[in-house]
Amino acid sequence: MTRLTAEEKKFYKDNGYILIRNPFTAEELEELSTEYDDLFRRKNEAKTESSWVGSDETNRKSDSPYTVKGIHNLQMHHAVFGKLLYHDKLLDALEDVMDTKNIVLHHTKAHYKPPEKGASYPMHQDYHYFPYKKDSMVAAFIHLDDSSPENGGLCVFPGSHRLGPLDDVGARETSHFHYVDQSKFPIEKSTPVLARRGDVVVFSYLLVHGSPANLSARARRMLLVQYADAHDEPLAGERAQPARGLVLRGVNLHRDATVANRHIQ
């Protein structure tokens, strides 16, 4: 079990994130790493572009030399990522962070920042992509490499989750991405999360976070799982994600069981 101490729970409540030291066995971590690399080799094409440029319609193509490759819905590509969703130690920690025993999947994704040309991500809140009524949404950011600002690691503004939803500057400046005012939340003043291979950062979707460019000789590989309380509800329509609402722990008492609505996620 990976239960949080009272001090760790308070740290999360105050700061909006918590670093969990490697909850995986050596075998689990190696299998995740191997299948991650194989997946990106199989799908190494322009349509996996995930840097903050362009649109989905153009596969986010640009003239920038900096790039990030991204693949969503990992559980649809290999069973190892499906197994990850039910990882007991990770779910134990999430119960303590989310203060619920009923946890459902929202989505999964992986980002690969290549050495020397990994694009930065502006400071943002995940909230603006998928707002929920009770703000139960959290992310588990899983590191497959040691991570620091040098190789484009995660940076956060501790306590920013307590500010609630911030002005969505991105919605005014672009129709494709959401981000906060970069002059109010400059990445230079953020707090780097120094993580080792296998470490997991769990953070609120209201936490302001982002990452600098990877200009180092090391790759930055990560994968992420986004979770919600089973009894929370979205505030607005959003694109359906495969397996969204899949119960990973506990029960979903509000799930519609009528035959007519069996196809609704």
Describe this structure in words.
The protein has 265 residues and is of the alpha+beta class. The protein has one domain: q2cbj1_9rhob like domain (Jelly Rolls, Sandwich), CATH 2.60.120.620. The protein has helices spanning 6-15, 26-42, 79-85, 88-98, 169-173; strands at 17-20, 69-72, 103-113, 121-124, 138-143, 155-156, 191-192, 200-204, 209-211, 220-229, 247-249. The strands form 2 sheets. Strands 1, 2, 3, 5, 8, 10 and 11 form a 7-stranded antiparallel beta sheet that branches. Strands 4-9-6-7 form a 4-stranded antiparallel beta sheet, with no helix packed on it. The chain is globular and about 50 Å long. The model has no long low-confidence stretch (mean pLDDT 92).
Summary tags:
265 residues; alpha+beta; Jelly Rolls; 7-stranded antiparallel β-sheet; 4-stranded antiparallel β-sheet; 19% helix; globular
Provide a brief overview of the structure.
The chain has 265 residues and is α+β, with helices and mostly antiparallel strands.
